[in-house]
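For the sake of transparency, this paper describes our internal protein records without simplification. The record that follows is passed on verbatim for readers who wish to inspect the format:
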Amino acid sequence: MPNHVTNRIRVFGDEAEILRMLEEIRQEGAGIGSVDFNKVIPRPESLEIPCGFSTFRCMELYLTSVNPAAAWYPGDKMEPEEFSRVMECLRNRNYGQKGYSSPEETAVYEKGFLQKGRFSDRREMESLGRQAVTNVLLHGSATWMEWSVEHWGTKQNSYGYEDMDREAAKGGELVFYSAGSCADKIVRRLSEIYPELYFSYRWADEDFGNCVGEKEYEDGEEVFCNIPTQGSNEAFVMAEDILGISPEECGYQMDEKEGIYVYQ
């Protein structure tokens, strides 16, 4: 389970523009104060397929079905040049598919997946594999998770926010959690979409003194950045301010001799 990262955003500018932004980015069914990453950087719907080992094995089965060198496996084969292009794209995106499965490997995959009830037949496995490969060709990622990490910086949407009334929202302060990483890519994009607003952004991981920093954005450009060294005293001071708790409350004590915080 990923760590909770606290994100604090302060937005400066015209109150009406701030309210418009908060209304446009709030999650469906939630109030002002929530942030739907999909409304800031939309994730293609075709990526909404299972991620993990089974999908990558299905990609291998699909590639085997279209591989002109795998004559033993049924399927409409690609032209060699087209197949080479597909494999090159997969390698460039760090998908290490071999491009084929042996008859023995295919039998193992089919037996295992069918026994677990994940698929009804080979055709269904190949269909998932085809979709994953197509996603890489079109969007650079096979499934929603890889795409989200690359484009949002975190694999899931924001959470842990508190609804605000419209009067409070005029202050332009947002607080929410992200999973395992900060959401600076989202904040930069907000600055591009709403160029008349100025964004001051700070974040801190629940792993005290790690993954902590601050940035500011104006008109889509990063105009300030301060990311202290992980575990440094500066990182501890910044985390304390962002999280609202002291290092001592998290089990750390100052080592007077070394001049650094250590976990007790």
